[in-house]
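Before relying on records like the one below, remember that each one covers exactly one chain. Contacts with other chains, cofactors or solvent are not represented anywhere in the record.
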Amino acid sequence: MVSHPLVSRGSGGFTALVFFVAASVSAHALTWETTSRELSLDLGTAEVVVEFPYNNETDAPVSITHIKSGCECSTIERPKAPIPAGGKGVLTVHYHPGTNPGVRVVPIEVTTDQPKAGATNLSIKATLEPVLKLERVLLRWTRNGSADAQRVTISGTGRAPINALTLQPPADAVVASLAAGDEPEIWILTVAPISTEQTLTARVEVRAEVRGRLITQAVWVVVR
């Protein structure tokens, strides 16, 4: 809040200071149904449409003049026409979640043509759930010890159908193979270093085709 002085001259010839109080920033020009959305998505989801409904509860038209997204993974449809007084609308976000599991937060800032109205901060919080469950992702061998192969059981999580499972050719210092298990969507990954004479850190990639997209999860081979 900001105070502004006004000069008032009384009938007796004296001068008085009269203060009035004005808000430096008024309420948001638009009223939003919600400013945050939380999503649980399967890896392999190419796009999801997220909507943020709003109302113009003021007595004048309001235009959305600028939208800033904190992630290139989103495309936002900005209304071109002003929202009339008492009108409604929806801000539509096309979100492309990518292919890495974990939590992603996309901040979105919306500015209107109302000079005293603050920007509205929206957000999308997306949890990308894995479609493969790996028994373990870190395999260790002791330097100058045995180079016996280790096995990793891989299974589908049931969240999405897996059409294919393959290995990216591992590093020259690693031997890896993939075989189908005894049940559907069960695979056995067998990995071993060629030698344990030198320290080693190598990545073996397990690739799954899910809904036409390639999803990659890694198993690490370490000799120390």
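Residues 31-129 form a domain with the Immunoglobulin-like fold (CATH 2.60.40.10).
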